Amino acid sequence: ILIEAWGAGGGGNYFGSGAGGGYASAHFGVNPGAVVTITVGNGGTNAGNANAGSGGTTTLALPDSLGANYTVYATGGQGAYFSGSLIFSPTGGSFTINPGYYNFKGEEGRNGASNEYFYVEKTAGVFIEIVKASKGGDAANSFNSGGLGCTYVPSVKTGQAASGLRPGGGGGGGALAAGTNGGYGGAGYVIIRY
To answer: Most buried pick, 23, 43, 119, 153, via CB within 10 A?
Structure first.
């Protein structure tokens, strides 16, 4: 069989976007009737002025045709977080297969990002803040799965940050001034081909 697994994406918050989930793919020889145990990671929760939830890990546990037991892990991306005056870019999910299995492909999810802040002179000596919220990190081995962030310009209606898409996209960033939370992380995903 060929298995593919994606970890879930992390959620976004007022300050930035969540990271995308990791990816693992491997071929296994299995015997008829073999049981594959699957756990699909949940997408990270979104937040406003708080830390967002990280995406859950997707796992597949199975015995191969020679009787060895393997577990495939595609870890979730980190949720956006904030610590005092420091804003961090969350890191993408990773991958592993235990015990040491070498016939596989893995890729890390894309990192989330901090929102960008711009100041524009509205009238002489009066400045306004514009927030360009960041796009969520794409899941590994996928494209455009990260949710789009909202944009805040004073006196202009803005939309809610988009949630990450399956498989495992990170949630888009929100905007504190607009009172919009970040997006939720996309759920993990599994494909088994035989």
So the answer is: 43
Task: Write out pLDDT tens, residues 5-50.
Answer: 999 999 998 888 999 999 999 999 999 999 999 999 999 999 888 8
> Is the whole model's pTM more than 0.85, yes or no?
yes
Which of 185, 82, 182 is CA-nearest to residue 133? Answer: 182
- DSSP conformation class of 119: E
Please answer whether residues 19 and 90 qualify as being in contact, where contact means their C-beta atoms are separated by less than 8 angstroms: yes
Residue 180 pLDDT greater than 80, yes or no:
no
Contacts for 64-67: CB closer than 8 Å, 24+ residues apart = 64/28, 64/29, 64/30, 65/28, 65/29, 65/30, 65/31, 66/29
CB neighbours of residue 29 within 10 Å: 9
Q: At a CB cut-off of 8 Å and minimum separation 6, what does 139 contact?
A: 6, 7, 9, 20, 21, 22, 23, 77, 93, 109, 110, 145, 146, 164, 167, 168, 169, 170, 186
Torsion of CA 89, 168, 187, 190, to 10 degrees: -150
Q: Nearest Cα to 13, choosing from 163, 129, 125, 119?
A: 163
Q: For residues 109 and 77, is the Cβ–Cβ distance under 8 A?
A: yes
DSSP characters over 123-140: ETTEEEEEEEPPPPPPPT
Cis ω before 99 (30° cut-off from 0): yes
